[in-house]
Amino acid sequence: MTTIPTIVVQLVHIDGPLKGEIQEFLDPEISMGRLSTCQVQFPKDFTMISRNHARIVREGNRFKLVDQSANGTFVNGKRVTEAYLKSGDVLILAEGGPKVSFLTRVEEGRAQPQAVTPSGAPAEPQIAPTPQQPAQQIQPEPATPAHVSIQKVQVPLVVQYGPTLHSFKELPVTIGKNPGCDLSLEHPQILDKHARIFFDQGQYWVNDMTGRNLILIDGQQINVQAVLHPNSTLSLSPKGPTFRFLGGGRLAEFEEPDTQGTEGERS
Questions:
Q1: What integer pLDDT is reported at residue 10 of this predicted model?
Q2: Mean pLDDT of successive 10-residue stretches along the chain, which has 267 residues
Q3: By CB neighbour count within 10 A (0-12 exposed, 13-18 middle, 19+ buried), where does 76 fall?
Q4: Chain Cα centroid distance, residue 48
Q5: CB-based burial, 133-152: b 16+ in 10 Å, e otherwise
Q6: Per-residue pLDDT at 69
Q7: What angle do CA 170, 176, 182 make, to 5 degrees?
Q8: 170 closest CA partner among 182, 192, 148, 154
């Protein structure tokens, strides 16, 4: 039997009623709307979303968005009726409505049955789009203990920051304000070369490149580098930005509760 790669679709809800949720699908078709039969279901009283608003259909190794709504569906700000999606695209369901980032991940070593066309013939495979990563030379400093090895490894990393998903297939990934970094972040607390995410001993690590011990995990300063555990928070400085490590190489921007305003009101 002809097989095609197993491709996992990840939908990261950036804004709207499902904000903060990350959904994963292996289905050949993903429906979105207010109906209880939709895989991505919005509240019944959220009427800006149609009952059957849109669907994502797999065709070979590509995914096509099909709009079925009254208020429209937008891909990267452009209203579409149908559009092929690529990893990192941002979907908006209705103008001013929920915002969702679309991401795909190929699972090595697994395969699933070949999709077929309506006539019953196998669908022609299409080359899945892959994000282009700039070449980045690994910086040798700061020094790390002998038992930790920072070297190139083929493992995934996905970082959600603002409305954008940044997807990498190889670590280490250098984070900083410098455009030459693998992940360039515009944030007042980020230095030119700030941090490095790497993989060793079966775990994801963060390496502080600031020389100032600015990076915190769960509110505690790290000493040069530390392991990222699932559900831990990673703050690149005491004043952010902050991410939640979701495991499996996924970092999602995280807004910590602001208690200062409440305390100020009480005093």
A1: 86
A2: 74 87 90 95 95 95 95 94 91 94 73 48 45 41 57 90 85 94 93 95 93 93 92 93 88 68 45
A3: middle
A4: 25
A5: eeeeeeeeeeebeeeeebee
A6: 96
A7: 25
A8: 154
At 157, the amino acid letter reads L
The answer to whether the bond into 142 is cis (omega within 30° of 0) is: yes
Q: Nearest CA to 98 among 122, 71, 131, 121?
A: 71
Starting at the edge strand found earlier in the chain, the sheet holding 82-85 runs: 40-41, 29-33, 54-59, 62-67, 82-85
Nearest to 76 by CA among 111, 100, 106: 100
* Stated pTM of the model: 0.53
Closest to 95 in 3D by CA, of 117, 71, 116:
71
Do 206 and 197 meet the contact criterion of CB atoms below 8 Å apart?
A: yes
**Which DSSP symbol is given to 169?**
S
Helix, strand, coil percentages for the chain (3-state, nearest 5): 5, 45, 55
What's at 36, amino acid-wise?
Answer: S
Q: Which residues contact 256 (CB under 8 A, 6 or more apart)?
A: 233, 242
